[in-house]
Q: What sequence folds into this?
């Protein structure tokens, strides 16, 4: 039986590049077409990932997937139809306008899904976010209350709903918790960078709310493996959460950062946090970011780093006491097992090492 031909939309992004690496390293497919706005040479790939992208296995197409003509170019092939499409193409930055999210989340998903349906691909694996659930202490299962708490997650849920209406689309929807690992910019990494700032300042690192605020996690290698697994073992029309079993919270992450950066951490507490944020969360966010951004810039300059995609900046939307608590066990009923059951100090150090090698993170801090 011949190996499938696949398209990875958004394949130069954090999850996308790790998926391409997983597919290639395990010899799972006969061809990978990667579509992305960003060229591989400018995407901050690791050495091993860059070699894969330059191999004959991978065919790269630079494309703005919000444009139908570009989508058509990606799906066209003289060698026959595509078997599986993995959609990881979406805006990932928080704090953007509704218009930006409509174009770069909703429109991209719908345009690509329509093209996939016309080709009758066997699976369209669409990656959304677990931020679509109502934030609460109880771990959300796939059928639980929907109440998106960021503009980005609202766009993702709107896209999910629209994809379900497309005739002939064999869609499976994935809702991951906070994804971390080598290449992560928006997940745990802002906290890692903030810890490096407090190390340089010689101060105790204090976060809003308390240690118990859930920020459930899933490692990017588990995400990559799960996407491939579900393309063969997932049920069409179903939704699958992705989250490890650690029930990670703010306190757990801080306990990992303390020995790495040799700092002390604490939390403001719920009462004090509510008083501080009740007046104007925008002011709280602005004050915190002003405190962190300048020292981070100085750390980078001291090590000769002129350009880096990394930042301690946290958008206002992420500073509220919205728990990301997710039950990721449904996928295990299909035979999948998570290889990384919890974040560890070793895994956090791996993230730092990845960025040090790319000269995006100052060497010698840990």
A:
């Amino acid at each position: 039986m011949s190996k499938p031909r696949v398209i990875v939309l958004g394949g130069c992004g954090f999850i996308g590049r790790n998926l391409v690496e997983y597919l290639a390293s395990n010899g799972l497919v006969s061809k990978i077409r990667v579509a992305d706005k960003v060229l591989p040479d400018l995407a901050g790939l690791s050495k091993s990932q860059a070699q894969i992208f330059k191999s004959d296995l991978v065919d790269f197409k630079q494309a703005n997937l919000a444009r139908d003509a570009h989508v058509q170019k990606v799906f066209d092939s003289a060698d026959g139809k595509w078997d599986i499409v993995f959609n990881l193409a979406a805006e990932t930055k928080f704090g953007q306008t509704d218009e930006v999210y409509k174009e770069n989340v909703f429109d991209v998903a719908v345009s690509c899904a329509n093209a996939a349906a016309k080709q009758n691909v066997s699976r369209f694996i669409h990656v959304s976010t677990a931020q679509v659930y109502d934030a609460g202490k109880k771990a959300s299962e796939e059928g639980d209350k929907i109440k998106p708490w960021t503009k980005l997650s609202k766009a993702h849920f709107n896209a999910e709903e629209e994809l379900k209406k497309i005739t002939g689309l064999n869609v499976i929807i994935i809702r991951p918790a906070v994804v971390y690992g080598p290449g992560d910019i928006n997940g745990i990494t802002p906290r890692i960078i903030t810890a490096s700032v407090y190390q340089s300042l010689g101060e105790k690192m204090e976060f809003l709310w308390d240690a118990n605020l859930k920020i459930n996690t899933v490692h990017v290698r588990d995400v990559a493996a799960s996407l491939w697994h579900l393309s063969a073992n997932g049920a069409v029309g179903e939704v699958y959460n992705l989250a490890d079993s650690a029930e990670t919270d703010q306190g757990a992450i801080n306990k990992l950062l303390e020995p790495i950066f040799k700092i002390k951490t604490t939390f403001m507490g719920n009462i004090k946090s509510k008083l501080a944020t009740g007046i104007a969360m925008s002011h709280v966010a602005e004050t915190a970011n002003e405190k962190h951004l300048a020292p981070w810039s100085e750390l980078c300059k001291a090590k000769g780093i002129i350009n880096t995609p990394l930042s301690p900046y946290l958008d206002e939307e992420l500073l509220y006491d919205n728990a990301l608590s997710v039950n990721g066990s449904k996928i295990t009923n299909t035979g999948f097992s998570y290889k990384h059951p919890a974040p560890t100090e070793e895994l956090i150090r791996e993230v730092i090492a990845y960025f040090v090698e790319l000269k995006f993170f100052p060497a010698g801090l840990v």
